[in-house]
């Protein structure tokens, strides 16, 4: 909930610029933003590059000169995404994370988007986040997020169930396109079925005792940036440098649209689901138990360090988190299934959102059989 995100007083203010950028004729609007943010740049010399990885918004990189050194990212919000994303909360999360050196600088907001600093590095692929060299860095960086105190004395609460209830109310009952409509009725669970599952999820997962922490909530591969200056990147693997005998953290997370207070286990389970990839989804890549136990131990060691609780982690603590994470992974499938149905109705981005919803719900029901019987250790 937006009320629970407390931005530190020392965080720099973020100006609002009264500009609307047309996603189909973007140059003139983007140049107005650049004039305010980089007044020394000559408009005729400003180059623009579209980034095509995202499926929620459109992202434009603006720079001057021969190389992409100082780049201003212009994110144009997707059609009707205000139904899915709390934009005020996104800005607060952005500012909090920047104050804790976990995010790039947010330059401004505008009428239908925002501008922010470009992080040098490479967006990772599923094979990278599964590698020994990288997964511990990701686990420790996520622990740093989760340890951030940004609620100003409030008892933080998750708005997961409230948000899923809102999404459920927005899912389309039919499509004008006959083929899409047939797929909706034949391949997607009925609204009554989805309502029953949502009730079951809330009743079951709320009892698991997962702490509510500041979460990223959308930790897919492309939202993880490997910093080349702290290490070296090759096509088939990511390698790291060792500085003064210690591993220098060289991954950063981007895109904070869905960031906010949520269950710790949801954020991790959601990340594990993303091991399957996005364009060619393969859930056989969901991490096996042995890998998860390594990942979760690395995470808990870092989390306890950040919380000032030492770094000793017991097998029981790891096992508790393992059960919580794999059951909250169900909620992640359900959340993005609902999200994809809404995007199928409104988005102008070329992506098979309806097919993606089917994938997520199918995996939800398959996984439910496998993990619903997991019990917390006594």
Automatic annotation (TrEMBL):
Record-level GO cellular component terms: cytoplasm
Database matches in Gene3D superfamilies: 3.90.1200.10, Phosphorylase Kinase, domain 1
GO molecular function: ATP binding; ethanolamine kinase activity
Assigned keywords, A-Z: ATP-binding, Kinase, Lipid biosynthesis, Lipid metabolism, Nucleotide-binding, Phospholipid biosynthesis, Phospholipid metabolism, Transferase
BP-aspect Gene Ontology terms: phosphatidylethanolamine biosynthetic process
Residue ranges of the TM segments: none
Top-level taxonomic group: Eukaryota
Enzyme Commission number: 2.7.1.82
Enzymatic class: transferase
InterPro entries recorded: Kinase-like_dom_sf
Pathway membership: Lipid metabolism; Phospholipid metabolism; phosphatidylethanolamine biosynthesis; phosphatidylethanolamine from ethanolamine: step 1/3
Protein family per UniProt: Belongs to the choline/ethanolamine kinase family.
Full protein name: ethanolamine kinase
């Amino acid at each position: 909930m937006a009320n629970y995100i407390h931005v530190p007083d020392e965080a720099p203010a973020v100006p609002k610029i009264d500009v609307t950028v047309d996603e189909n004729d973007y140059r003139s609007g983007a140049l107005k933003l650049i004039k305010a943010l980089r007044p020394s740049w000559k408009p005729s010399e400003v180059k623009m590059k579209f980034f095509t990885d995202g499926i929620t918004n459109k992202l434009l990189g603006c720079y001057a000169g021969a190389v992409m050194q100082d780049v201003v990212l212009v994110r144009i919000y997707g059609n009707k995404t205000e139904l899915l994303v709390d934009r005020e909360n996104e800005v607060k999360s952005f500012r909090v994370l920047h104050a804790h050196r976990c995010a790039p600088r947010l330059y401004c907001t505008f009428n239908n988007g925002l501008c922010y600093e470009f992080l040098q590095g490479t967006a990772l692929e599923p094979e990278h986040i599964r590698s020994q060299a990288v997964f511990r860095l990701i686990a420790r960086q996520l622990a740093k997020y989760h340890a951030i105190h940004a609620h100003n004395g409030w008892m933080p609460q998750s708005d997961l169930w409230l948000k899923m209830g809102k999404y459920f109310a927005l899912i389309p009952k039919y499509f004008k396109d006959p083929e899409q409509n047939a797929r909706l009725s034949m391949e997607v669970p009925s609204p009554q079925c989805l309502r029953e599952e949502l009730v079951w999820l809330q009743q079951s997962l709320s009892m698991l005792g997962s702490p509510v922490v500041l979460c990223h909530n959308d930790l897919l591969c492309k939202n993880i940036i490997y910093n080349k200056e702290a290490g070296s990147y090759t096509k088939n693997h990511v390698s790291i440098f060792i500085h003064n005998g210690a591993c220098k953290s060289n991954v950063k997370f981007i895109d904070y649209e869905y960031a906010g207070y949520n269950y710790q286990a949801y954020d991790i389970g959601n990340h594990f689901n993303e091991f399957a990839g996005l364009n060619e989804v393969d859930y056989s890549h969901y991490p096996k138990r042995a890998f998860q136990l390594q990942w979760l131990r690395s995470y808990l060691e870092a989390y306890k360090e950040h919380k000032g609780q030492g770094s000793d982690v017991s097998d029981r603590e790891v096992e508790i988190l393992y059960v919580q994470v794999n059951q909250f992974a169900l909620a992640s499938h359900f959340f993005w299934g609902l999200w994809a149905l809404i995007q199928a109705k409104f988005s102008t981005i070329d992506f098979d959102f309806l097919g993606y919803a089917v994938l997520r719900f199918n995996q939800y029901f398959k996984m439910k059989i496998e993990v619903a019987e997991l019990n917390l250790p006594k």
